[in-house]
Amino acid sequence: MTELARRIAHAHEILHRRFGYAHFRVGQLRAVRAALAGRNALVVLPTGGGKSVCYQVPALALEGLTIVVSPLISLMQDQVQAARARGIRAAALTSAQSAAERERVLAEVRGGGVRLLYVAPERLATGHCIGFLRQVRPALLAVDEAHCVSEWGHDFRPAYRQLGAVRLALGRPPTLALTATATPAVRDDVVRTLRLGDCERIVGTFDRPNLSFAVHRVADDDERRRRLVGLLKPYRGAAVVYVPTRAAAERWARALFHAGVSAAPYHAGLEHAVRRQVQHEFLTDRVDCVVATSAFGMGIDKSSVRTVVHLGLSTSLEAYYQEAGRAGRDGRRALCEMLWTRGDLRVQRAIVSDAGKLDPLLRYVTAFGCRRAMLLHHFGERLRHCNGCDRCTRRRARWAQVEVA
Fold first, then answer.
1. pLDDT tens string 360-401
2. Fewest 10 Å CB contacts: which of 83, 170, 268, 350?
3. From CA 376, how far away is CA 211, in angstroms rounded?
């Protein structure tokens, strides 16, 4: 048995013993194989596709430290907690820690007591952090939410652009760049910026057959409220309602609460403890609906979300699809609906610096034709069969009426 074959066999054993899965999914296995072979890879798997397995299993199968670049403190905390629950020695370096806490983490890393270290790109790019980790000689670098690298992506973070230089400074460790939403242009930009060279490109399907997509243009907020309450009041499981501003999160959460829906707001303006409490209550089914800005959802592991509603337009089609994709991660049917007015367009144009990013989204909400086909085309994929969008459902209903007549 070759060394690579031995490592892959060990990875299968880890997957079964630590994660409780009998088999890797196809994309996961290719990513794990690349990491264990010391190759760079771009990994684009849909929301719920199990991206964390792609680097957590190699972190246990390889000797040495795996560094995970992650964009949000709350996300890092959730990831560390989940990894520790599986018996992985994980830690994070964040600005929320005291200097003494960060030094304790560094001491644990130095002593080999940490296998998985989460760090924000801004901290990783500092000279002190690079100098320390260069001595440790990481075995693997994982860049989570890798679309943040690209200026063409929907969550661009300037610090992510420095990670190519950071890779070189760390001694070019094998690198996995992982994301759920990246157009072909964004994929090329990520590979180029991270200096991944002739890397393996692992792109799963963007089609989520269990999700139904619908868009309704409403006249005003009164009509929007009536339709939203109509969607959520008959309890059909957990729901996430996305809004563009913090004030809107507070306002719509109150409106839903007064209408008899168990709802709570979530946005970056709330104190950290409040956000954690809302998130905990949502994950434990004490709150049925979270009304949130885009600050909510990244890394949220709740598979039973049955409805995702956007009140207004997202900042881009990629952002919309990532947020909508938090519905139905258990594979059961779920609804993704957008309720918008012309006034929402003015709001987003004031928020989005590059107005061109709104064009694909506007085509999605206004153009005729299958919505699922438009979504998949945006990510470079062709639709084989639509079994869930409002346009195709209405078209089939009209055909059925013609046949009956």
1. 999 999 988 999 999 999 999 999 888 789 999 887 665 544
2. 350
3. 13
157 and 217: one domain? no
Compute the distance between CA of residue 241 and CA of residue 80 in angstroms, rounded to an integer: 27
Claim to verify: residue 303 and residue 155 sit in the same structural domain: no
Whole-number Å distance between alpha carbons of 342 and 381: 29
DSSP string, 360-376: HHHHHHHSSS-HHHHHH
Instruction: Give CA separation, 181 vs 77, 264, 317, 367, in Å.
Output: 22, 27, 10, 22
For residue 374, what is the domain's CATH number?
3.40.50.300
Q: 266 is written with which tokens?
A: 């979530």
Q: Are residues 10 and 28 in the same domain?
A: yes
Q: What are the b/e assignments for 324-348, b being 16+ CB within 10 Å?
A: bbbbbbeeeebbbbbbbbeebbebb
Q: Are 164 and 218 found together in one domain? A: no
Q: Rounded to whole angstroms, how far apart are CA atoms 154 and 138?
A: 29
What the block records as the tokens of 64 is: 């040495």
Give the pLDDT confidence of 21-56 residue by residue, as tens digits.
Answer: 999 988 999 999 999 999 999 999 987 778 999 999
Q: Which two tokens stand for residue 5?
A: 């074959």
What would the pLDDT profile of 219-263 be if each residue is shown by its tens digit? Answer: 999 999 999 999 998 877 899 999 989 999 999 999 999 999 999
Closest among 32, 44, 46, 43 to 4, alpha carbons compared: 32
Do 46 and 179 touch, CB atoms closer than 8 A? Answer: no
What does pTM read for this prediction? 0.87
Q: How far apart are CA 251 and CA 221, in angstroms?
A: 11
Q: Count CB neighbours of 378 within 10 A.
A: 21
Give the gyration radius of the chain's Cα atoms.
22
Q: Residue 403 falls within a domain, yes or no?
A: no
Non-local CB neighbours of 96 within 8 Å, separated by 6+ positions? 73, 272
Q: Which domain holds residue 68?
A: 3-203
> Any idea which residue has 């909510």 for tokens?
296
CA distances from 403 to 396, 398, 400 (A): 11, 9, 5
What are the Cα distances from residue 94, in Å, to 56, 102, 339? 20, 8, 37
